[in-house]
């Protein structure tokens, strides 16, 4: 494959599936600096993988899998690096000025999704993205019934956690 063709495909996919990629990224990286770093990692992996795409699945499924695997590896590396370091997230609000307020419920939801284990995080994102249980099973390599059980548990956990969330402030 010629590099010009690879660049063209990459740009088309990035334009079409940016929102999908950022849903994965937001679930694994909590602040904007980390999200930018992870986005660059995901883009690099996608670009490198283009010649290996065989169209055996939808482009969105294939890109989601790349983004998810990259995010999991990135999060593991970050976790090792952050052990013993002060969490800068606690001070991030001092450095940021936002012109438009974020919906606190969305912020809460992504924070809760980040607390889940890797598989549950992936399933929560797939569910939010509207994937069917069958598609999730294919992507994750587990049975549809197992998907259903896991999603039920995730929903139950999020509902329980939401009881402690201050809904009046929203």
Structure overview:
The chain is mainly α and 170 residues long. It folds into two domains: 1-91, RNA polymerase sigma factor, region 2, helix turn helix motif (Rna Polymerase Sigma Factor, Chain: A); 98-170, Arc Repressor Mutant, subunit A (Orthogonal Bundle). 74% of the residues lie in helices and 0% in strands. 18% of the residues are buried.
SSE inventory with pairings:
Elements: H1 3-28, H2 32-49, H3 59-82, H4 89-95, H5 104-115, H6 118-129, H7 133-140, H8 144-162
CATH class annotation of the largest domain: Mainly Alpha
CATH architecture of the largest domain: Orthogonal Bundle
Supply Rg. 17 Å
Computed structural class: mainly alpha
Averaged pLDDT? 83
Order of helices and strands: HHHHHHHH
Largest sheet: none
CATH topology of the largest domain: Rna Polymerase Sigma Factor, Chain: A
Overall strand count: 0
Q: Any idea what the shape is?
A: globular
Report how far apart the termini are: 51 Å
The percent range for strand residues is: under 5%
Helix content: over 70%
Number of domains: 2
């Amino acid at each position: 494959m010629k590099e010009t063709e690879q660049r063209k495909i990459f740009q088309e996919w990035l334009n079409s599936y940016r929102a999908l990629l950022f849903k994965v990224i937001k679930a694994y990286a909590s602040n904007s600096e980390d999200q930018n770093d992870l986005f660059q990692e995901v883009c690099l992996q996608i670009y490198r993988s283009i010649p290996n795409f065989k169209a055996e699945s939808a482009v969105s499924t294939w890109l989601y899998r790349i983004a998810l695997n990259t995010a999991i590896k990135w999060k593991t590396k970050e976790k090792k690096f952050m052990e013993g370091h002060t969490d800068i997230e606690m001070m991030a609000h001092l450095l940021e000025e936002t012109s438009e307020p974020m919906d606190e419920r969305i912020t809460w939801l992504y924070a809760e999704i980040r607390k889940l284990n890797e598989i549950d995080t992936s399933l929560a994102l797939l569910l939010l993205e509207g994937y069917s249980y069958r598609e999730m099973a294919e992507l994750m390599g587990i049975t549809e019934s197992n998907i259903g059980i896991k999603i039920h548990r995730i929903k139950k956990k999020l509902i329980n956690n939401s009881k402690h969330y201050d809904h009046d402030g929203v």
